[in-house]
Amino acid sequence: MNKKFKNLMIDEMMASAEVFPIISLDENPTEINLNSGDELPILPLRNIVIYPGVFVPVSVARPKSLRLIRHAQANDGLIGACTQMDKKIDDPTIDQLYKMGVAA
């Protein structure tokens, strides 16, 4: 798939007012090094599990999650993503997330 087509798809998805896509266009991912004690903002995920090294589109719609993504993008920051245990909860606490996740 060429870059122009990829960008067109992303532009179309971003036109939606309620959903913000997270898609990596980098075909050569960089290694992420975290030190003990480093803190990452956590993005709770519903109905999806993300595995290291696997690229998967994630749609973000909750206002709090949108702010997290926009802040990370503006600051070239990393986020952590963990699946929540109960998909019906709108604002899960850290205890309502699985303890294993990924950094992105």
Q: Rounded to an integer, what's the Rg over CA atoms? A: 14 Å
Compute the number of strand runs.
5
Q: What's the CATH H-level superfamily name? A: LON domain-like
Provide the spatial order of strands within the biggest beta sheet.
Answer: 2-4-5
Helix/sheet category: alpha+beta
CATH class descriptor: Mainly Beta
- Described by the principal axes of the CA atoms, the overall outline is globular
Distance between the termini: 23 Å
Main sheet summary: 3 strands, mixed
- CATH topology, anyone? Archaeosine Trna-guanine Transglycosylase, Chain: A, domain 4
Q: What is the succession of H and E elements?
A: HEEEHEE
Could you characterize what this model shows?
With 104 residues, the chain is an alpha+beta fold. The chain has a single domain, classed as Roll (Archaeosine Trna-guanine Transglycosylase, Chain: A, domain 4). Helix content is 23%, strand content 21%. The protein has 2 helices and 5 strands, in the order αβββαββ. It has helices at 3-14, 63-74, and strands spanning 20-22, 42-45, 58-60, 80-84, 97-103. The strands form 2 sheets. The protein has a 3-stranded mixed β-sheet with strand order 2-4-5. The protein has a two-stranded antiparallel sheet with strand order 1-3. The protein is globular, with a radius of gyration of 14 Å.
